[in-house]
Amino acid sequence: MTLRRYIAITPARDEEEFLPAMIASMVSQTVLPARWILIDDGSKDRTAEIVDEAARRYPWIEPKHLQPERARLPGGESVIMRFLPREVWQDADFIVRFDSDMKFERDYIERLLAEFERDPKLGIASGTLIEPFNGEWKLSVLPSYHTRGPSKVYSRRCFEAIGGLEPGVGWDSIDEAKAMMHGFRTQSFRDIVAYHCRLNGSALGMLRSRFSQGRTCYYIGYSPIFASARAFGFFHHRPYLVGTALFLAGFWSGYAYRLPQVADRALIKWIRRQQMRRLTFRQSVWQ
């Protein structure tokens, strides 16, 4: 088995609490990156200082700094793609994208890269995340085809095929759908785990998060029938009826305000076709 060359990239905005543990995890990996682009995304705390100190100690860490007062899309993907032109990743075998509030064991990346060696069709991989919930650490189990946004590894062929990462909301579902549409597999591995120190969506709050999820599904181009079916699934999760109503409000408000959707109309058609196959109990890429 040959573990090949990879580059890593991480955006960090006001992450002085979690970034040191993330850096400690990266520098202790059994397989180190050829380069790790560590972005201070306009932080107002000590993040910039922590980034620069790490770069002084480890020459393969490349610090990048952005101004705090600027227009900024939700999420970090527009920032990431700003520092990932083709010439940066074209000679790498893999692109590793991590959030700055992660921590993981020394062989975490090595084990993920090994999965690509075992499966040439694997395009995107992640570990399974352990996240804080009600004062405890809990394993966040999702369908195996869903790779987790805070921790993603892309093969270069897949990254090239999907055209990089989509700026804005829904990027971590769009990249999966594009990968599958191009014939790649996506998978999160239950036996490879990492700690995500901030619960996904916790920055928004649960109620705002439900509305945001609905708006994201609109942006991605979900079938209204499939989105409605998904909304009713929230009946089993707090805040129950309110969460369901907020999800639907987020989704349908996109139509009411004629908000833009992802520009790739072929992708939307493909997503809706797979969703209808799933609703009618036929074979789909999500089964």
Could you characterize the architecture of this molecule?
This protein has 287 residues and is α/β, with parallel strands linked by helices. It has two domains: 191 residues, Spore Coat Polysaccharide Biosynthesis Protein SpsA, Chain A; 74 residues. 40% of the residues lie in helices and 22% in strands. Strands 1, 2, 3, 4, 5, 6, 7, 8 and 9 form a nine-stranded mixed sheet that branches. Helix 8 crosses helix 10 and helix 9 runs antiparallel to helix 10.
Task: List key phrases describing it.
9-stranded mixed beta sheet; 11 helices; 22% strand; Spore Coat Polysaccharide Biosynthesis Protein SpsA, Chain A; single chain; alpha/beta; 2 domains
